Every structure is written in C-alpha cells, then in structure tokens.
C-alpha cells in the first residue's frame, strides 16, 4: 500500500519547467547590476548619438544664444561657453561624433585584429609568426605616439581619425584570442570533425570561430572605451576633426577659462566621456563573467 502511494505521488509530481528567456534574463540582470548600468549608459549614448539633432534645444555651433560663460540654469542646463554656445547642445552633438568615430574604428580595427588572432592561433606556423611579430612591432610604440604618427600621415578629417584609431586597436586583444583559439583547436569535437572528413577551413569557420565569438564581443566592448578616449585625446590636443566633440570642448583654452571659476565649460564634457568609458568597461566585464563558465556563480 505504501509503495502504491509513493508511486502515485511520483506519477502526479509536477514536471520541472525550465525558466523562460525573460526570467533567465532578469536573473542574470540581478546577478550583474554593474553590467546593467553599463548597458543602460551605452544605450543612452547610442540613442543620443542617433537622435541628437532632434534632442538638442539649440544649434551647437550657434553663437551668442545667451550671455557668454553663463552658469547652468533652467534655460541652459549645462551653461554657456565663452562664445555663448549652449553646452548642453554641444555635449549632445559630441555624442554623435564620438559614436561614429569609436564604433567605426572598433568594427574595423578590433574586429580585423580579432580575426587575425583567431586565424593565427588555429593555423599557427608562419602565419602565426607574422601576425605576432607585427603585433609586437606595434606594441613597441606608445599608443598615443602611434595615434599622432598616423594622424599626421593620414591628414585631417573624421576618416583619418577612424583609420588611426582602427590601426591602433588592431592588435589589442590579439594574444588573448590566439590563446583561446589554441585551446579550442585541441578539443575533442575538432578531432571528431577531422575524423569525419571536414576540411580545416570548415572546422575553423563552423566550429572554432563561434566558440570564441563571445570573447570577441567582450574585447570589442572594452575597446570601445579606449577608442572614445583616443578620439577625445586627439581632439583635446587639436588633432581631431573640425567638428563639435567632447575632447575639443575640453581643449587648452577652455581649461584656462575653467581655472577662472567657469567650471561648467569642461566639467560636463568630461562627465560624458567618463560615463561612456565606464559603461563600456562595466558591460565588458559583466559579459566576460556571464559567458565564461569558470566565472559563473
């Protein structure tokens, strides 16, 4: 009788239901609040960069929209600079410039460098030797000096800045991806694919690359902050494009004005740069924790 009762309880026991995608997403968000903060900051950054002209209350290049060097107020939340330009509108316009330059540079430079690192790690031999020695040659130059050299060689304009930052980011995560690819290439599923007659290129594209792709996304999200800092540094030193940008608004003349008590001229562009770089780094760290099985709780 007891055995029958136990069997009936097992028959009518509720089956385990796997949590839905929204529930898993919510649980991941609760475990990584810093990553959620970084994601929100980057979403706001992208939204501002895309819809900036519709959000800006004034033309960022318009002169004398108010009294020069006026402090923050309801009409001008970030105040005015020495030319009477609205700083709130200029910060919004600078988001678009930073978004275009940093995104294009990362997708061109970091993505190409990631592919080279994976390619060298899988095929090895002379191809890996050439890629790694080229990365060491680039690493011999300080990054800022390399940006200066490339900027001087390529000339003015947004395209030149994108090319300079992209070349500088070419070998950023190269060695990390090379090591991850070497580990993946020695896995059992790669040997099984070779045993059933798959070509090396098919194994590389269909099996190895998808397994290291999460690491590529993590590296690119971290490199986004570095690209924004590089663009801001070049604009700060007067080597950036002749457009509204966060680094340009923090240049030497504005710093001199800020020392006289008009702090708002440089503080708000600096806060924008710091928030976006912090958001990119926090999101990259959280993605690494989520996708790396060794770091999961």
Automatic annotation (TrEMBL):
Please give the start and end residues of each transmembrane region: 34-56, 97-123, 135-154, 160-177, 212-241, 261-284
| Record membrane topology | Multi-pass membrane protein
Keyword entries, A-Z: Cell membrane, Membrane, Transmembrane, Transmembrane helix, Transport
SUPFAM superfamilies found in the cross-reference section: MetI-like
Subcellular localization(s) per the UniProt record: Cell membrane
Predominant location of this chain?
Answer: membrane
InterPro entries named in the record: BP-dependent_transpt_permease, MetI-like, MetI-like_sf, OppC_N
Against PROSITE patterns, the record matches this protein to: ABC_TM1
Q: Where is the ABC transmembrane type-1 domain?
A: 95-284
For this chain, the family text in UniProt reads: Belongs to the binding-protein-dependent transport system permease family.
Q: What is this protein called?
A: ABC transporter permease
Higher taxonomy: Bacteria, Bacillati, Chloroflexota, Tepidiformia, Tepidiformales
């Amino acid at each position: 009788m007891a055995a029958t009762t136990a069997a009936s309880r097992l028959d009518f026991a509720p089956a385990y239901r796997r949590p839905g995608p929204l529930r898993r997403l919510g649980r991941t968000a609760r475990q990584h609040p810093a990553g959620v903060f970084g994601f929100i900051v980057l979403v706001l950054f992208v939204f501002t960069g895309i819809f900036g002209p519709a959000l800006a209350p004034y033309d960022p290049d318009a002169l004398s929209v108010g009294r020069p060097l006026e402090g923050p107020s309801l009409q001008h939340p970030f105040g005015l600079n020495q030319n009477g330009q609205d700083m709130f509108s200029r910060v919004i316009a600078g988001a678009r410039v930073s978004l275009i330059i940093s995104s294009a540079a990362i997708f061109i430079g970091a993505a190409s460098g990631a592919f080279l690192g994976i390619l060298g790690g899988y095929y090895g031999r002379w191809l890996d030797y050439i890629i790694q020695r080229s990365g060491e040659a680039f690493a011999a130059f300080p990054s800022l000096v390399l940006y200066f050299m490339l900027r001087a060689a390529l000339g003015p304009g947004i395209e030149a800045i994108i090319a300079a930052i992209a070349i500088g980011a070419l070998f950023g995560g190269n060695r990390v991806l090379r090591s991850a690819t070497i580990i993946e290439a020695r896995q059992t599923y790669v040997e099984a694919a070779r045993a059933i007659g798959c070509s090396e290129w098919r194994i590389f594209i269909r099996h190895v690359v998808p397994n290291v792709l999460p690491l590529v996304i993590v590296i690119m999200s971290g490199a986004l902050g570095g690209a924004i800092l590089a663009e801001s540094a070049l604009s700060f030193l007067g080597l950036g494009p002749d457009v509204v940008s966060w680094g340009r608004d923090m240049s030497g003349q504005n710093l001199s004005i800020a020392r006289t008590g008009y702090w708002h001229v440089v503080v708000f562009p600096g806060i924008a740069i710091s928030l976006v770089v912090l958001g990119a780094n926090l999101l990259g760290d959280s993605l690494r924790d989520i996708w790396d099985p060794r770091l999961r709780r």
